[in-house]
Amino acid sequence: MVDLVENLTFDINNLTNATNSTSGEFLARFYYPPNPSAPPYAPFFGFMGCTAAQVFTVLGAAYGTAKSAVGISQMAVTRPELIMKSIIPVIMAGIIAIYGLVVAMVIKGKIGGENYTLYAGFSHMAAGLTCGLCGLGAGFAIGIVGDAGVRGTAQQPRLFVGMILILIFSEMNWSVLAVWPVGPNRSNDILNLF
């Protein structure tokens, strides 16, 4: 145990000596940043928010597209004239990925500089996760509704309007609207999203 404490003390002394040399400058900036609330690793969390927003919304869009396409394929066997009318769930599923891209680009535009704080990084990560997971849920909803709705529309054409309304409320920009309260800049300016 004494050896462990002596080695730890030796390592701390070496780290302190390394801060005075040029080779240890990066190490010193990492462990002792000039602004403790804005360490050099803070942008990592912001970029993880960008990644989460894009990845999860694309997964939701892919699931919604695949599930809706299965319903369209089965419906097309009996009613091929309804194929183009039934593409709407696939289009709406693809729009979810665009929401994720927009949120990721807005977050990416806010990342950077030496004054990028951990608070901003965590806020951007939370915003990205919120957008991504809402988009994933919306993709699941659109896929299930699109599959069942398209098959039902083939049997009863009056179901089409109801299916479209359910699809609209399934998507409804939840992935973008849910991000507003999460971002670090809480002002009344609507254009300053995050």
How would you summarize this macromolecular structure in one to three sentences?
72% of the residues lie in helices and 0% in strands. The chain is an all-alpha fold and 194 residues long.
What does this structure look like?
Helix 5 runs antiparallel to helix 6. The chain folds into two domains: 30 residues; 136 residues, Up-down Bundle (Four Helix Bundle (Hemerythrin (Met), subunit A)), CATH 1.20.120. The protein has seven helices and no strands.
List keywords for this structure.
Four Helix Bundle (Hemerythrin (Met), subunit A); 194 residues; 0% strand; mainly alpha
Question: How does the SSE layout of this entry go?
Answer:
Elements: H1 2-18, H2 25-31, H3 42-78, H4 88-110, H5 118-155, H6 159-171, H7 174-177
Helix pairs in contact: 3-4, 3-5, 4-5, 4-6, 5-6
Membrane topology: Multi-pass membrane protein
Family: Belongs to the V-ATPase proteolipid subunit family.
Protein name: V-type proton ATPase proteolipid subunit
Task: From the 3D structure, determine the CATH topology of the largest domain.
Answer: Four Helix Bundle (Hemerythrin (Met), subunit A)
Could you tell me the number of beta strands? 0
The CATH superfamily label of the largest domain reads lithium bound rotor ring of v- atpase
- Could you report the average pLDDT, rounded to the nearest whole number? 81
Per CATH, the class of the largest domain reads: Mainly Alpha
The second-level CATH architecture of the largest domain is: Up-down Bundle
Low-confidence stretches: 4-10, 187-191
Major β-sheet profile? none
Residues in helices, as a percent range: over 70%
Order of helices and strands: HHHHHHH
The fraction of residues in strands falls at: under 5%
Class from helix and strand fractions: mainly alpha
Can you tell me the overall shape?
elongated
